[in-house]
Amino acid sequence: MPGGFSLLGILALVALFVLTNIIKILKEYERGVVFTLGRVGRKAAGPGLVLLIPAIQTMRKVDMRTLVHDVPPQDVISRDNVSVKVNAVIYYRVVDAVRAVVQVENYMAATSQLAQTTLRSVLGKHELDEMLQERDKLNKDIQAILDHQTEAWGIKVSNVEIKHVDVAPEMIRAIAKQAEAERERRAKIISAEGEQQAAAKLAEAANILSGQTGSMELRYLNALQEIASDRSNTIVFPFSLQQMADAFRR
């Protein structure tokens, strides 16, 4: 009897081992890529019950749900030579389980590495202002590139979001100084343009007055009248009375 029990126990263990290798249950969001003597089937199995032939068939499970990957901070030099750290998050899922297993060794690691290089490549072509102000456009550009390049792996990249664009403190101070210098330069240009326009107007007025007889004398007398209206003023005549009389006679 003890020998019979031990034999039954061994048979039970063998049966359990065989069953666990024959019967596989896949959840609704899982698919199984079945290999028969090393050759992959045309379609992925599942969901539900999958029966395998021991020692002949093997199966690899693939999660078909949308995966969220946080891209580590990347050092990027913008087109205007500003060094920044940028990180992003990508949303992707497997749409073809067979290609995701056969075409690439590790589709998760490959997608992560591709996202990092694409992030640096795309953002390096833009200036810092564009990174800060045109994130929606940059997100779409990166998503389109990733989606196209991962298509051969059976991956669909649905969305990319740039999370942070961090500028080093010393670079922020340098940018502030540059902005201040640019504001001063524009202010000087505006002031110079204003002086140029004022000089042109004065020259035009001088030409008009020089062509009118007695116009300067009339302006002089008008000015004297305005000054005389204020009794607190002391009037000093730059011309002699004779010169003023001659001006009236003209």
Topology:
Blueprint: H1 2-22, E1 23-26, E2 30-36, E3 39-40, E4 48-51, E5 57-63, E6 67-77, E7 83-94, H2 97-102, H3 107-123, H4 128-133, H5 135-150, E8 155-167, H6 169-210, H7 215-228, H8 241-249
Antiparallel strand pairs: 1-4, 2-3, 2-5, 6-7, 7-8
Description:
By secondary structure, the protein is of the alpha+beta class. Among the domains are: 50 residues; 106 residues, Band 7 domain (Tetrahydropterin Synthase, Chain A). It has 8 helices and 8 strands, in the order αβββββββααααβααα. The protein has a 3-stranded antiparallel sheet with strand order 3-2-5. The termini are far apart. The model has no long low-confidence stretch (mean pLDDT 82).
Task: Report a brief summary of the structure.
The protein is of the alpha+beta class and 250 residues long. The chain contains eight helices and eight strands, in the order H-E-E-E-E-E-E-E-H-H-H-H-E-H-H-H. The longest helix is centred in the last third of the chain and has 42 residues, at 169-210.
